[in-house]
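FIELD: query
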Amino acid sequence: MPYMPSAYLIRSPGVPRSITRMAREHRFGRRRAVYRDQFEVSSVIIVALMMLPTGGLLLYLSLGMLAEFYQGIETDISIAIVGYFFLVLGALSFFAMGLVIYRAYESVVYGWCVYIYDQGCIIQKSKEAAQPFSWNEIEAIWLAFTHRRRDRALMSENCTIQREDGYRVTLTRHGGNLNKVTDVINMHLCERLLPLLLAQYGAGQQVIFSPCGINQEGFILGEGGDKWLSWSHFSHLEIKETFLLIYEQERELPWASLPTVAIPNLLVLVALVDRVRDNSASKPSDQVGGGKD
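FIELD: result
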């Protein structure tokens, strides 16, 4: 899977000199993209300008109606009902405005910026020193997902990236482009790891993605492989928000349900299964029995 810069190219309004110097020192090559996890200030201003007068007007109307009702100027109970309704809407408007402002503040305080280069990336978190991650030094990535409300497509909610030296950094989606960051990292991980894992699999060894793994027999669970599912009975994988579901043929309920945050390089596992399942299903060893507990 070759690197496709056009798919990720974003013009940066400016990159700190320290980041440029770090990229040069690590020979990361040309900068390809800059992804930030920050609310757009203009969006916050627009929401505030909409919510502030709307909420204020609703509260003004509600208090006026309720005052007239309780003072006996208006005796119709519907006036009081409408007044309470406006009061709730006004309070919700101010609550929504406060929530947007809080998320913007959270994004600034706990936000991050990822600079993508040919040979690696540099991750800068708020109030933390920038860290270089060569594509060859990233050991694993752990992912948690959610679904977009409209199309139900998977969206990265947070991820933890680990270098070979054990250093870890966690990125959380507040309002930025975490999906694009994880796409780039997973693409490079697949490009580097898939040939090695396929060779390991072809040699008859177990390929472990703790707490699960695969071998030429099928899926295995547990350190001792005490639960397994043969390729001939394996149906498909499904990522459902925070869980990886493994399905057995002709069964509606999943054979196993594993939290995605516990599986390193989850999307590498999915790509590996896609590559080997057809060949594995045709082997005589896969024609024996079904899933075994």
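FIELD: remark
The first strand starts at residue 31 and ends at 36.
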